[in-house]
Amino acid sequence: MEFLKSFWDENFSYYTLAEFEGRHLTKMNLSKNQSIIKNHIEPWFSENYPHLLLRKTDEKKLKEFITSLYSKKCLYKDCNLSTGFIKKIKTCITVPLKWAQQNNLYSPSLNINLSMPLMRYKEVVHRGILNDSEEKVLLSYQWKNQKAYWGFKIAIICGLRLGEIRALRFCDVTKEFIKVRRAYNDIDKIKSTKTGTVRFVPCPEEFYNYFEKQRIKMNAKYTDFIFGCKSDGTVPVDENYFTRNFYKVMKELGIERVRYNPENDKIETVCFHSLRHQTATRWVSCGEDVRIVAKALGHSTAMLQQRYANHFDEKMMKRFRNKLIEKGSLNLL
Fold first, then answer.
1. If we measure between CA atoms, which residue out of 296, 291, 313, 257 comes closest to residue 159?
2. Is the distance from CB of 79 to CB of 130 less than 8 angstroms?
3. N or C: lower Cβ tally within 10 Å for the chain?
4. pTM assigned to the model
């Protein structure tokens, strides 16, 4: 365990090497992995293999541990760990072991690329998006918190990530575009975007007009955060601010977060990041070139197609079906 803890530390050589090679490894990543070790990895190994050394770790023990995660409960709610989170726990172990192999600290014969065990009984919840009527209701609703409303509006219309919205300054919004230069989290503070690039995202002129009025009203500088939590605009709102208010308004409007989608026979959950999926789906459904959409969202084209494939397929098939109905191709009698 001591090796895992020291590996996910900013003073460890792996972190220094990653920074040197330009790989994206933030203090937030390190903090989350330390938390995973403390809450999920260390308790299990302490109970089952209390004196296990790195060189004695074998594939059987690792698979036994990963399999046990499927029956483990979340820390703060009565449900099982998600498949996505289990993959993060797996990564927290396998990356250090791969590094140890490459540096001759670990047996090269061990297969580190462990496959996830197939648990057919485990219910998988997929990320869903709002339907058109829910989208319109949320946009037209009188939110009590206007700051949260405009954060929601940027997410659903422009597809910015939560950290990118928090990092927005008044100088980033023009009459035509939002210039996404950076992101913000509570550990790393200001950092580069997820892809490490600056991008321009189309936005309505209404955004610029509103935020410019707010800037003048607040007597704020152009370099102040738009969504600041202090009067001096030097610190953004906390990371749960937008999510908390979004869920509150959904509840007020009777919009369910978890829903069954009969069109793809899946149980889906709507979260704040779903708004980004909403934007991608809408832009592609309008006939936009997927390469342009990928650039605006800060994705590679291939990743965009893979990540939002279900939403794209559904919308595209609906358009295709409507065209077939218009031409009478679905009514051959």
1. 296
2. no
3. C
4. 0.67
